[in-house]
Amino acid sequence: MDDFSIAPAAPVPQAPAPQSSGGMDLGPQAFMKLLTTQLANQDPLEPVSNEDFIAQLAQFAGVERLVDIDQGIQGLYGGISSMNNASMSNLLGRGVVAMGDHVQLEEDGGADLRFVTGGQVASGTVRVRDDNGSIVANLDLGAWSKGEHVIAWDGLGDDGGTLEPGTYTFEIEAADETGASVPVDTLITGTVTELDYSDGVPRPSIDGVPIGLDEILRLTEGAE
């Protein structure tokens, strides 16, 4: 009898846990095809052990469960997002105080400039700018204690003339009695007139000025 030997088939790598490759997921059918191909081409002298076979099936089952969990989380996230978007609609028409430097000059020529001081203020200056960034009014800040305050602006410019109604910005420089700088945050007040969902996150606008939800300090029943 002639000697013969069975040439082992080309080694086939152990099937890993299902992974994405080139942007394509290894689904159940692809996994089973890979597994049966491995079994059909395994080395007859060194077949895959039962333990390895079961381990591979367990790996696939585990990954499949993770995929199911991920899909469930995505669905839950979508539901929560929809609920949040719906609840955000309640902001429309509400008065808001938020971080910001815009102020709306009304037809009557007046506006309130609201701000928060980080310490005792002895003196300072309020600068009002138009939509081109030019300073149109300089106001004496005066002395203030630490906290939130409001200055009534008459809408007059440095030249003594009444400025046109519209949106302006303002900034404040303040110092204590030693001349050291005191931090001051400017605030924007008004009514929420719009909610923009284009970025996936509701973004309210106060009288046409967009703000972030994290910039809102408090809400009121009516316009501030």
Could you describe the 3D structure shown?
With 224 residues, this protein is of the alpha+beta class. The protein folds into two domains: 28-89; 93-220, Immunoglobulin-like, CATH 2.60.40. It contains two helices and twelve strands. It has helices at 28-40, 50-88, and strands at residues 95-99, 102-105, 111-117, 123-129, 135-140, 147-153, 166-175, 181-182, 184-196, 203-206, 209-210, 216-220. It is elongated and about 95 Å long.
Task: Summarize this structure briefly.
This protein has 2 helices and 12 strands, in the order H-H-E-E-E-E-E-E-E-E-E-E-E-E. It has 224 residues and is α+β, with helices and mostly antiparallel strands. The chain has 2 domains: 62 residues; 128 residues, Immunoglobulin-like (Sandwich).
List keywords for this structure.
224 residues; alpha+beta; Immunoglobulin-like; 2 domains; 7-stranded antiparallel sheet; 5-stranded antiparallel sheet; disordered N terminus
Strand proportion: 25-35%
Note the overall shape.
elongated
What is the H/E order? HHEEEEEEEEEEEE
CATH class of the largest domain: Mainly Beta
Cα-atom radius of gyration:
34 Å
* Count of alpha/pi helices: 2
Helix content: 10-25%
CATH architectural group of the largest domain: Sandwich
Q: How is the biggest beta sheet arranged?
A: 7 strands, antiparallel
CATH topology of the largest domain: Immunoglobulin-like
Low-confidence stretches: 1-24, 76-83
Structural class: alpha+beta
Mean pLDDT: 76
Please identify the oligomeric state.
single chain
Q: How many extended strands?
A: 12
Give the tally of structural domains: 2
Give the distance, in angstroms, between the N- and C-terminal Cα atoms. 104 Å
